[in-house]
Amino acid sequence: MTVNYKPGRHFLQIPGPTNVPEGVIRAMAQPVIDHRGPSFPDLTKGILEKLKPVFNTTSQIFIYPSSGTGGWECALLNVLSPGDKVLAFETGHFATLWKKIAEQLDLNVLWIPGDWRHGADPSLLEEKLGEDSKHEIKAVLVVHNETSTGVTSRIPKLREAIDTVKHPALFMVDTVSSLACSEFKHDAWGVDVTVSASQKGLMLPPGLSFNAASEKALEKSKNSKSKHSYWHWDAMMEDNARGYFPYTPGTNLLYGLDEALNLLHAEGMNNVIARHARLSEATRIAVAGWGLENLCMNPEEYSNSLTAVMVPEGYDADALRKIILERFNMSLGTGLGKLKGVVFRIGHLGDFNELMLAGTLSGVEMGLSLANIPHKKGGVDAAMEFLAAQ
Ligand SMILES: *Cc1c(COP(=O)(O)O)cnc(C)c1O
Question: What is the model's pTM?
Answer without folding.
Answer: 0.98
